[in-house]
Amino acid sequence: MPQARLQVPRISDAIASSLERRILEGSLKPGDRLPPERELAADLGVSRPSLREAIQKLASKGMVQSRQGGGTYVTDRLESTFFDPWRDMLGAHPNLREDLLEFRRMLEGQAAEWAAERATDADLERLEKAFAALGRAFAENDLDQRSACDIAFHQAVSEASHNALIGHLAAAMLRLMQDNIRLNLGELRAVPGAADVLQNQHQALFDAIREHRPAAARAAAQTHIDFVQETLAQSLRSVARRESAARRLGTDFSSTPTID
Q1: C-beta separation of 139 from 131 below 8 A
Q2: Do the domains 78-238 and 11-74 match in fold?
Q3: What is the pLDDT of residues 39-88, one digit of tens each?
């Protein structure tokens, strides 16, 4: 009876798998440029021809792409496949924002719980830096910086959960909500004490993860989202009132239109 041949994996397949794993875990993020070929080959301990073949395999999957002017970059394929259709839907159906916040509450609550259980020293160091940057942005009262740092902090929490799907779904969801996050923070600037509430909520979340208290981390994340959800509702009501007032100012009620 003939012996079955042992299937030996190709070196390029092993390299592609290693790079793909880095993309999945978030070590390589969308927009990141891969190190120069010579440097990356030395880092992985492989030949440059094998590395080129591996990168071609990733390019065929849409995971990386070469850009004019040189360099190979990680694409956002894992996030854009979720982001693109929902961005259009949210634009056409604003009521979906409530559903998105409910989903965010579920996702970030679980992410925070797992982050408190699984966060490594490197994760906690990243979280500490993200939290410090968020504090500086609030102190400087820079709305764009606040929004960017808020997203970066919550993304760091999601990636500390060490669940690849949560990390990439959270990234796509936060991109979807970027305008809403900026809107919320803008509205909150006019609310006395609101900035302190937000910072206290972020502090509670960070402390619970740092102290490895999963239940407290989940509760802190969900409390924060509940606050955001109520703020969004108040913001939408405020916008509706302002638009209504503007229409009344610009409308002449001295004559009533004739109904044919």
Answers
A1: no
A2: no
A3: 999 999 999 999 999 999 989 888 888 887 788 998 888 777 666 777 77
Tens digit of each residue's pLDDT (9 = 90 or more) over 148-205: 999 999 999 999 999 999 998 888 888 877 766 776 677 666 666 778 888 999 999 9
Give per-residue burial for 100-122: e unless 16+ CB within 10 Å, then b. bbeebbebbbbbbbbbbeebeee
Q: Tell the residue number behind the tokens 């070469």, with chain if given.
A: 66
For the 78-238 domain, the top CATH level (class) is mainly alpha
> How far apart are alpha carbons 109 and 224 in whole angstroms?
10
Strand-pair partners of 33: 73
- What pTM, to 2 d.p., does this model score? 0.72
Domain range summary for the chain, segments of one domain joined by +: 11-74, 78-238
Residue pair 157/176 in contact by the 8 Å Cβ criterion: no
pLDDT of amino acid 8: 56
Token code pair at residue 134:
């968020």
Q: Is 130 helix (H, G, I), strand (E, B) or coil?
A: helix
Question: Using CA of residue 187, residue 204, residue 222, residue 112, what is the dihedral sign?
Answer: positive
Looking at the structure, give the CATH architecture of the domain made up of residues 11-74.
Orthogonal Bundle (1.10)
Phi and psi at residue 65, to the nearest 5°: -150, 150
